[in-house]
Amino acid sequence: MLNEQTLTTLNQLKLFGMAGSFQERLTNSKHAELSHGEFTGLLVQDEKTYRENKRLKRLLKNARLKLQASLEDIDYKTSRGLNKQVLLELSSVQWIDAFRNVLLTGPTGVGKTYIACALGNFAARAGYTVLYFRAPRLFEILHQSRGDGSHLKQLAKLVKSQLLIIDDFLLSPLSDPERKDFLEIVEDRYGSGSTVIASQCPAKEWYQNIDDPTLADAICDRIFHNASKIDLRGDSYRKKQGK
User: Is residue 29 domain-shared with residue 50, that is, in the same domain?
Assistant: First the structure.
């Protein structure tokens, strides 16, 4: 009866991790000789693990990563100019804490999106908030938000994320509203968040594709400063899979 009351109280206190393991640990013969302190310590650890797993699920769900990818599964065997040392450096949270950016460039199908999502997955598992957007979709959302009055709210959401991933950037030259929105994003995130940008457009051509000298200067200066650059090359994985 006392155990049932304890279980009910744990659930009422929203200690669901402890409640879930309480009965199981009571019936486990291995725990019969544990002291009260040791048994309580295990329950506390169960609660901590439960909350960490719940937070991770929430972070990954909110990130909306396009691919389920991990840094451990990145292919280094295929020749595509991928520097393993750079990825090893990005396997530490130091670049996120230092608000550094990552620029992934290269032709279609060489794995830019996979690497970007792997970095997002890594950041979420380390406890950081992550957002993933394809650039065309992002600019469409911002365009629509101007009409419904939520534009500033949408920009604030992008700035607030500790890691922002923008995929398929500069598939076409930016329009004037897109240039201004993008400048607002990189300006507000400068020194306060890390941004991963994947693009088929070579970094040296970003200036001309932004298509406004003044805004291009401001945007590129903030993006390229303190950024890790990964320039991929080679044939498309999709073509290889098709063959």
Answer: yes
Strand order in the sheet with 227-231: 130-134, 163-167, 194-199, 101-105, 227-231
Domain total of the chain: 2
- Answer with the one of 21, 38, 62 that is the final residue of a domain: 62
Q: How far apart are CA 116 and CA 66, in angstroms?
A: 9
Mean pLDDT by 10 residues, the chain (243 residues): 77 81 76 77 82 86 94 87 90 96 94 96 96 97 95 95 97 94 96 96 92 92 92 74 51
Q: 191 to each of 82, 120, 133, 187, how far by Cα in Å?
A: 27, 19, 21, 9
For residue 22, what are its two tokens? Answer: 């309480």
pTM for the predicted model, two decimal places: 0.84
Exposure on the CB side of residue 145, measured as CA atoms within 13 A: 17
